[in-house]
Amino acid sequence: MSILLDASARLLVQGMTGSQGSFHARLMREAGTQVVAGVTPGRAGASVAGLEDVPIFNTVAEAVEATNANAACIFVPAAFAADAILEDAAAGLDVIVCLTEGIPVLDMLRVMPRVRASGAHLIGPNCPGVTTPADGVKVGVMPWAVHTPGHVGVVSRSGTLTYEVVQHLTDMGAGQTTTVGIGGDPVIGTRFIDVLSMFEADSETHGVVLLGEIGGDDEERAATYIQERMTKPVTSFIAGKTAPPERRMGHAGAIVSGTSGSATAKEAALTAAGVLVGETPEHAARLLVDRLR
Amino acid sequence: MKVHECDAREIFRRHGLPVPDWRVASTADEAAQAASAFEWPVVIKAQVLAGGRGKAGGVKLADSPAEAAAAATQILDLNIGSEPVRRVLVAPAVDIARELYLGVVIDRTAQSLVLMASAEGGVDIEEVAATNPSAIVRVNVDPVVGLPDWEARQLGFGLGLSGAQVHQFVRIARGLVEAFVDVDAALAEVNPLVVDAEGNLQAIDAKLNIDDNALGRQPDIEQLRDPHEESAAERRARAAGLSYIKLDGTIGCMVNGAGLAMATMDVIKHYGGEPANFLDVGGGAGVEKITTAFELILEDPNVRAVLVNIFAGITRADDVAAGVIAARERLAQQVPLVVRVAGTREAEALELLDSAGIGAERSMDSAAALVVEAAR
User: What are phi and psi of A153, to 5 degrees?
Assistant: First the structure.
């Protein structure tokens, strides 16, 4: 078992003819993902090196019709990414993973009602994607090699920090059910609570590492959810304790403004909810491994 | 990106907000001259991007050309939040009966805009939010639909406005939401929105921050960028595709990925050191990019040691190692360097670094402990 994506995932890649799209489509397939279609407007019938058997379509609707794709991965530039999300939602895809960084926040506000109405799970934007090791499914750009199948769920707002922690888990002998990078933007499709509820319901997941960072209050909301609803152990690391206020730390959503969004407040909320908060990323992994022992 | 008050006023006025006339001056003489165009008294306000301008002495009243010149001289001499005052805004002083607050921001949780109004204007709204949260009324606004009149009216009545004031308020609130959407703002604020002695509403201040992700489609707004908002180093970093923020510590950091970069700073602190900067080199790490990153880090005279922390997923660790070695050879200045590489092609990277005589670590914790020691 896993969450969001399993072996039945049939992936279409938007922007597969681009350099990023083609490179990562090949890596996703190497990991075991069924890459069934590519979509690039105006490039129907084109062929991508190393993926010659994957047909390219002009529209997502055509790709779904021809291949029964049920998930999408978006590699298109920021100016067109919101439109790509809308196209996927309109085509009835179950899971939409949007890697694109730099989408204007107003675009996301306009897109989200449609996504919610469609019932699709949007992961991201500005995220590394979703990886389910046991099923050989990777959608996005996470390094496959750091993963190993097991019973830990990982959910994170960051990319490389996630790989860091997954590597530690793997080194400690604790494999993962699913690793979900939910993205570093202020407005994202799937939030901590959504993923925590899926992990709580997944019988294979025995515990969760939650990797938060400064900005917003999703960690605080997660803390409330964990306290009220979760039976499985959760450990956490919150990045940005040393970040200065009012400065955007790389991610558009990572900013402490006024009194809101500080790492200290998030740690306090999580600790009060019974979450073990690590001093370092490695420590957070260690705390969960010890709890599951 | 932050927009100066004088530019924000222009944008708000374009969207129908009643903003009294103003002029901008960069010398005391200009300020006195500008003031003479208005009735006395006038208000002279520092044009800085930092907050807390009033408390810092950046806002003064003047009743004559001589007073205006003196006030401008004093204000132009100030540094507000380390930002020198380069220009002042001169406007007729408004006879204030009441001060209200009106602002629009993104509500991350509700995933919509939120219009905030308060009868306690003219003060730090963060403070009101902390001490008397019920004094702030919030209305979520769908950016596609805009603010409906009825909701604006309801807010206006709730603020204790009556008669024509409510109609004025509806126009102002709707205008502020329209301005927000029009320029892809991250924050649009009128504080204070005042009721003057005649009972009319006037927007006598204007604050506007823009969503950095939207600047590509807002060329007119990009033109308003104050080059002084960023330091020269930050500007150079942005041009090179790096995300760099200078801090006060002694340990320079070069990391790939924003979350890991923040975590690296935290781990340095955990082991007793102080980070000198936040620096995300992003994906891909060619020699040029790494060299620029090193230059930025080493330009900071406080830096006594450097930690490079790369978790190679997409990036190849051996490419990064080669970049670090080449960049180090190019740079005259040498400080203790600790490199931590992990992930894709880690073994090859460690070998390269070892043969170049650069200490390499596999774990972030051990690397941080080592660099903290080296910076002592």
Answer: -95, 140
- Cis peptide bond upstream of A125, omega within 30: yes
The catalytically annotated residue of A147, A168, A206, A251 is A251
- How far apart are the C-alpha atoms of B268 and A25, rounded to whole Å? 36
- The tokens for B313 are 């997923």
Q: Are B259 and A159 in contact (CB under 8 A)?
A: yes
Averaged pLDDT, A163-184: 96
Nearest to A234 by CA among A127, A115, A153, A149: A153
From B38's Cα to the closest Cα of chain A, the distance in A is: 36
Asked whether the beta carbons of A4 and A198 are under 8 A apart, the reply is: yes
CB contact under 8 A, A160 and B247: no
B299 included as an active-site residue: no
Closest CA to B32 of B5, B3, B7, B66: B66
Q: Which of B195, B154, B204, B229 is nearest to B12 (CA)?
A: B204
Are the Cβ atoms of B213 and A108 closer than 8 angstroms? no
3-class SS of residue B278: strand
Residues in B touching A161 (Cβ below 8 Å): 257, 259-260, 262-263
> Does the pLDDT of residue B5 top 90, yes or no?
yes
* Residue B285 predicted with pLDDT over 80: no
Name residue B216's amino acid: G
Please give the residue of chain B at the shortest CA–CA distance from A116: B111
- Could you report the predicted ipTM of this complex, rounded to two decimals? 0.93
Cα–Cα distance for residue pair B142/B177, rounded to 1 Å: 10
- Dist. CA B89–CA B343, nearest whole Å: 54
Nearest to A173 by CA among A6, A288, A281: A288
Paired tokens of B354: 């070892």
Question: Which class for A135: exposed (0-12), middle (13-18), buried (19 or more C-beta within 10 A)?
Answer: buried
What is the mean predicted confidence (pLDDT) over A98-116?
Answer: 96
Q: C-alpha distances in angstroms, B356 versus B37, B253, B325, B353?
A: 69, 20, 7, 5
User: Which of A154, A101, A123, A137 is CA-nearest to residue A27?
Assistant: A137
Yes or no, beta carbons of B263 and A141 under 8 Å apart? no
Give CA–CA dist B207/B88, Å, rounded. 15
Closest CB from A112, A141, A158 relative to B259: A158
Spatial CB neighbours of B243, under 8 Å, sequence gap ≥ 6: A249, A250, B237, B258, B261, B278, B279, B280, B282
Strand partners, B98: B195
| Residue at B17: amino acid letter | L
- pTM for this entry: 0.93
